[in-house]
Amino acid sequence: MDLTEQVVSLELARRLKALGVPQESMYWWQEDGPGNDHWAILQFPASTFLSTDGPVPFEKTAAHNAGELGRLWPELARSYRLADGRWQALAPLELAEARGWGWREPLRASGETEADARAALLVQLIEGGWLRLEGESP
User: Fold this and answer.
1) What tens digit of pLDDT does each residue of 63-80 get?
2) Cα separation of 50 and 68, whole Å?
């Protein structure tokens, strides 16, 4: 299985980073070189690129896998594969009722991979103000 099928896409990784999701992962999206728009998934990202002008920092973003994202989820949230091969993540009404969030229907997100579906649901929960990350003040 290709590594891109196991970790969150670069686009969603950037959104999670912007929302303050901890940048702790086994894998990282890292630019191929300073200012280069080509990115690679690495297990041990470099922190700087040595150029003739001295060290230049690489931009990097955590490439969370489905398990790492699951640790950030609230209880009762789940993900599953659909008949068409895509993945869906679900935050059920029971979760809203247990936490007093007042939804009228479950929150759902889908993606080509389980990691993308989980990341998309996490984005909805954070942007909706329903999930606060550790260390974040109310």
Assistant:
1) 999 999 999 988 889 999
2) 31
- Torsions phi, psi for 115 (to 5 deg): -60, -40
Token pair of 11 as six digits: 């686009």
**Max CA distance (Å), the chain:** 59
Q: Do residues 20 and 136 make contact, with C-beta atoms less than 8 angstroms apart?
A: yes
Is pLDDT above 70 for 27? Answer: yes
In this prediction, residue 138 carries a pLDDT of 45
Query: What secondary structure does DSSP assign to 81-133, as a single string?
Result: E-TTS-EEEEE-HHHHHHHT---SS-EEEEESSHHHHHHHHHHHHHHTTS---
Q: Which of 60, 58, 10 is nearest to 34 (CA)?
A: 58
Determine the Cα–Cα distance for residues 109 and 118; give it in Å rounded to an integer: 7
Question: DSSP string covering 20-39, please?
Answer: T-----S-EEEESSTT---E
Task: Map residue 17 onto helix, strand or coil.
Answer: helix
